[in-house]
Amino acid sequence: xxxxxxxxxxxxxxxxxxxxxxxxxxxxxxxxxKKVSGEVIEAVKTDKAIQAGDVKPIMALVDAKVLPxxxxxxxxxxxxxxxxxxxxxxxxxxxxxxxxxxxxxxYSGALTQVKDQVVELKPLRAAPTDTEVVVRSxxxxxxxxxxxxxxxxKAGDSWRIYDVNVLGVWLVENYRASFAQEIxxxxxxxxxxxxxxxxxxxxxxxx
Length: 207
Prior knowledge:
Elements: H1 2-13, H2 29-46, H3 48-51, H4 55-66, H5 72-80, H6 89-107, E1 118-121, E2 132-140, E3 146-155, E4 158-166, E5 169-170, H7 171-201
Antiparallel strand pairs: 1-2, 2-3, 3-4, 4-5
């Protein structure tokens, strides 16, 4: 379904690699999600290249708006599971790079379906001292609202995403099983090769 495809894009683009970022002023986790989601949706609505499925502007949008707010190292490590400790620094870097590219390329086409959607945040259930929270939201447009939740961690004065729940499925858990199966069969290098193969076979930029 187009609604489901688009919302998976939002989740996927929120799984980009980690970047160092410090906010000038502390921002609450739910306020951060509202800001980033709004900026991404508005950018898609006004960029005809993104609407056409061009990968380059999609990657640029992710780099500018999403990367600074995601702990992709933790996300990738969780998806790889116990095998992460066995990976070399070079393998870890390759895993993160290929994972990011896979997510963006796989779901980039669905960004063309962004029309009149808006994101509404549910009340945040967290204490001021909490360092990990779940921000719950709904994406509303035509049809039924779609659940989209975020697991977030506090790093200094800023918050970063480390997992996303789309329609009841947490992204990290969803990938963990398939990653473990591939590593058991052909090792960490085998998983890297599999991800790279998928990326090469994914639709290319229309630019």
